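Page 42, continued from yesterday. The earlier attempt failed because a stray header line got pasted into the input along with the sequence. Redoing it now with the clean sequence only.
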Amino acid sequence: MPDASGPGGDAPRVHLVGAVAHDRVAGRSGDGMPWRAPEDLRRFRRLTDGHTVVMGSATWATLGRPLPRRRNVVLSRHPGEDAPPDEAGTGLRWATSLEDALADEDGEVFVIGGARPWASALDRASLVHLTELDLEIDGDVLFPVLDPADWVEHEVEETTIEVDGAPTGCRFVTYARRGGRPAE
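This time it went through. Structure tokens are written below.
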């Protein structure tokens, strides 16, 4: 795997962030997350505020604008076609691969979706922050499987949060890579 050291020579610490219903469903193609969970969004903001977020072009399309107080990097095989006309001053950068996205980074980087960016970043990640909802939802965007041989629950908060206006069981879980180091 190519060295993704940032300008200071230090490799960024990669985190994955996501929310899933049963069966690892994280969304629907073209629609983003098929639920509204304000407490999960507050957790997402606390985790990512002030850091770099990396997302796929489909996730970018559902957001429609850069996330404030974060450096936003969008992965696209066709950045010229997908990019908005004016990126100046927006905190937005386009990259053609995860390695390209990480090349100028040396701090904390949060990969926020969708399925392909999560899958491509999983081997580089040291932490996964997952909101696990007790919810049955149809969807075709799936969060990658976390192999228990590689990942252990590091922090767990079991609670009930409001999802689409209804109380819903939830686990806020941070998984840590066993041994603490990403796969080489």
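Notes: The CA atoms of residues 151 and 177 lie 5 Å apart.
Reminder to self: strip header lines before submitting.
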